[in-house]
Amino acid sequence: MNCQFKQYHYFFPKSCINRNFLTFFFLMLSISFPFLALKVQGLTPLNEETQQALKEVLADEYHARAFYQAVIDKFGQVKPFSNIVRAEDRHASLVEELWEKYGLPIPEDTYQGTIKVPETLLEACKMGIKSEIANREMYDNWLPKIEEPDIRATFKKLRDASEGVTSCSKLLTDKRFSR
Question: How many CB atoms lie within 10 A of CB 124?
């Protein structure tokens, strides 16, 4: 093989390295890098079920944030919605951190600006409570199936936060919600 070191292709002499080899080399490097990063952190790649749980949970948090933001956009900075939307933003961030930690690409939030808001604050409050009850049930469904302690801890924290919102049902009698 005649290697001429005057011609370089990236870091390798052109005549010494086949273009197909370079393509294969960089493809393998890009595929294995997330797994190598997980091993350095002492983490193992997530199984399909755990990845599905993270997808569902993040989509739910994105949807909740978009719903509460849409209520604020329609009715103004009314509590408890103004508080809850900030909490939902923190919840989404916590789940996104898990995605990053395990080397997964974070899905795009496609819910912003797509949520239809009820006609009254009373209806919005009822929808919010119903949504938070479903949110808690979702976490209860996923928790027994998750092995990773950090993901379990995050899911428990978010499930318990939903319990706090469902206790807002006493606000349904508040006169502000009848408009």
Answer: 22
φ/ψ of residue 8, rounded to 5: -120, 145
Question: Tokens standing for 130?
Answer: 């119903």
CA-closest candidate to residue 85, choices 100, 66, 58: 66
Q: Long-range contacts: 45-53, Cβ < 8 Å, 24+?
A: 45/102, 45/103, 46/102, 46/104, 46/148, 49/145, 50/145, 50/146, 50/147, 50/148, 50/151, 51/104, 53/142, 53/145, 53/146, 53/151, 53/155
pTM: 0.70
CATH number at residue 168: 1.20.1260.10
Give me the domain span that covers residue 52: 48-178
2 within a domain of the structure (yes/no) = no
Q: Dump pLDDT digits (tens) for 134-154.
A: 999 999 999 999 999 999 999
- Residues 52 and 79 reside in one and the same domain: yes
